[in-house]
Protein 1
Amino acid sequence: MFNFRVHQELSCVAEGDGHFFARVGAMVAQQGSFTAEKVLLDTNQNRSILNSVINLAARKLTGENIPIMKVSGRGTYYMASHAHHVSVIKLQPGQSIGVEGENLLAFTEGCKYGVRFIGSGVISQKGMFTSNLTAVGNNPQVAITTNGNPIILETPCVVDPDAVICWTGPDPSFRADVNWKTFIGQTSGESYFLEFNSPGEVVIVQPCERASGLNLAID
C-alpha cells in the first residue's frame, strides 16, 4: 500500500509498495523499483468492460479525460507539476471529492475515479463537469495542485468559480449578480459565484483565477 505526503510544498511523495495512479508525466524522481503504464480504459478494477467503456466515454465527452498512468512497484516516487503547490487530501470511507481535472495529480488505489455533472459553470472556465473521486478502499488519498498556496475554507462559503480547485460534500449552487451596470461596463468584475451551503464540508481554492469565459460590456 502506498502513502502520499507533501515534500517541500511543490511535490508529492508516494512511499510504500503496490500500485497507485498518477497523471502521465508527473514523475520527477524515484528511488526503488517502479513500472508505469498508461491506463487505456478505467482505473476502477472491479468494473465490467462495458462500464469501463462508458466511464471512458463520459470522461472524453466532458473534457475530464486527463491522461492517467498506473504506477506499480516499491520504494519512493516523487511527483510534481509545473512547480505548483501540492496538497494531499485523505478521504473518509464513502466520502467523495470533486476535483478540477487540470489540478488532479495522483490518487491511491482506494479511490474510485469518474466524472460528475455540476451544471453550475456555464459562463466561467469552471465548466459543467468535474472529476470525481470516491473512497471505496483502504487508505484513500488524493494529491492536488494549486497555482500558489491553497486557501482552505470550511462551508458554508461563496467562491469564485474561476479559482475553485476541489470540494467535499454536495455540489455548489450558482449565483449571478448581473444588473444594468454589467451592460455598461460598470461591473465590479465579480458577477457570478459558487455557493456551498452544506455545513462542515471543505472547499479549496487557489490564489490565481482562470481566464473568465464571458465579458459583458458596452463601450
Note: The helical segments are 49-62.
Protein 2
Amino acid sequence: MSFEVEGKLHKKYETEQKTDSFQAREFVIETEGNYPQFVKFQLVQDRCALLDPFEEGQMIKVHFDLRGREWNGKYFTNLNAWRLEQGGANAAPTAPPKSADSGFPDSEFPSANDEPASQADDDLPF
C-alpha cells in the first residue's frame, strides 16, 4: 500500500546500524490542521540518506508504505518512507475538505443530519 502525507519535519534521527547488513533511520513529521499529529516514519538501507538535505522545521511530503508483521504473538506496524520531497504551497492538499456542520472531515464523522430518523427524534444531547 502506498500513501503520502505532508507536514513539518519535527525531528530527524541519526542512521542506526541494526545488524551488519541492515540500517534504519527514523524521523517525525507534524501534520497541520485543527488536530496536528506527530507521525514517525522510518527509512531503510540506502534510503536513509534521503533525509540528509532536509532540516527540522522544513515542510516535506513523505511517500510511504504501510507495513505490518507478527513476531512472537505481537503485532508491529511500520511506516516505511521511500521518497521525500520538499513540501509547500505547490503540493496538493492532503486532508479532505471539512464539513461545515461539525468541523470534521465528512468521511470520518457523520453530521447531525446523517442520523437515522429514530435517533433524530431522540432529545438526548449525546
Note: The helical segments are 117-120.
Protein 3
Amino acid sequence: MRHDSTAAMALHEFNGAGEAPPAVLILDDQEIDRLRLRRVCGKAGLQPDYSEAATLEEFRAALDVRPYQVIFLDYHLGMDTGLDALQIAKAHELQGDAILIMVTSVGQHDVIIEAMRSGCSDYIIKEELGPEMLRKAITGAFERRILLAALAGNQQVGDLGTALQSFLTTSAPELQSILTEMMHGVWRIRNSAGSDPEMRKDTLVVTRSCGELARFLDELKAIADGTHPIEGPAGRHGQG
C-alpha cells in the first residue's frame, strides 16, 4: 500500500512545489467531459494550467506549444481514437516527460490493456472518475518514474545489470503473458459483477496493478537495452 506521505510528496511535486503550476492537456471531443475532468482535478487537489483539444488536429497544435506534465487522452474521438493520440504524443519531441493517461468507458478492457502496453502511465474509467482515482493515477506515475530513474542510474553497478538481464530473458516474457491473461480474466469477472460496488472496486485495483506491472517489465527491458528515454543516448528526460 502506498504511504500517504509519499503520495503527498508526489502531489506537491506535481503542483509545482510552489513554482509555476504544471501544464495539463485534456484531449476530449466532448466539452462537458473536459469540464468534468477539470472539476475532478480541482477536488483531487491538483492545480494545473489547463489546455484543451477536441480533435487530433487541435491536439497536434497544442503539443507544439509547450511540454506538458500530464496529458489526458479520451479514447472516443469521432473517427479517431485515443490510441492514435497516444502514438502522436509519444513521438513528439516536447512531450518526452509527459504522463499519459487514457480515459476509457466501462467494458473497454482490450483498449486498457493495449494502452498500458503502448506507453500509457495509467488509465481512468470515465463512468467512475473521482478524486481518489485521479490522485492515484498521478502520484503512481511520479513514483514509478523516480524508481525507473534510480534503476537506470544503477543498473551497471555490481551484479545488478547481470541479474536484470537474466530475469528479463528467463522470467519476464512468461510473466508478461500471465499478466495479460490475468487482466482479461479479472475484467470478465468485473463485467459479471453487475452493480456490486465492492467487487467492481476490487477488480479495478487488480486490473490496474497488473497493467502497471506489465508496463514496468517493458520499461525494465528498455533500460537493460539502453533504449529507455531515461537512460538512452537520445533520451529526453535528462535533457536540460
Note: DSSP finds nine helices and seven strands in the chain.
